[in-house]
Specification:
144 residues; 2,3-Dihydroxybiphenyl 1,2-Dioxygenase, domain 1; alpha+beta; 20% helix; 41% strand; 4-stranded mixed beta sheet; 3 helices; 2 domains
């Protein structure tokens, strides 16, 4: 069994975070306060913390690195799903994501680490990656 991780991220607006992570992504909400919210991200604890310094119109800055000929935002976070769950999320994301950073696709095709992946940002600019492997145990840390 995988031990759940805890990740705290900064957001510009708590209500906006609740709408994005809770309503749009469909993550169950845990405890909350006026300046933070716990979300259950597929068994992991992601906490959105208000950072008033970001400002309502601002976003968190990201850098990009090349990965398999794509520009991957750093930092980013997300989860690894089973392929059917990833496909369902990719379909649902098309309803609320205005612009994907990386459209849903297959990366490292035909290689040991072949994976489905997609990247998009939350309203505060935090980059999220959702990926899936046909064989998570065999492919997650596979090397060429």
């Amino acid at each position: 069994m995988l031990t759940p991780f805890h990740l705290a991220i900064q957001v510009r607006d708590i209500d906006e975070a609740r709408d994005f992570y809770g309503s749009k992504l469909g993550l169950p909400e845990g405890r909350s306060a006026p300046t933070w919210i716990d979300f259950n991200m597929f068994g992991h604890q992601v906490v959105t913390h208000l950072n008033p310094a970001i400002g309502r119109d601002g976003t968190v800055a990201n850098h990009c690195n090349p990965v398999d000929s794509q520009s991957v935002p750093v930092p980013h976070f997300g989860v690894i799903l089973e392929v059917p769950a990833w496909q369902q999320l990719a379909e649902r994301a098309r309803d609320f994501v205005d612009q994907f950073i990386i459209e849903p696709c297959v990366r490292f095709e035909g290689q040991p680490g072949q994976q489905h992946t997609m990247f998009f940002a939350d309203p505060s600019g935090n980059a999220l990656e959702f990926k899936a492997f046909a064989d998570i145990d065999g492919q997650l840390f596979a090397r060429d």
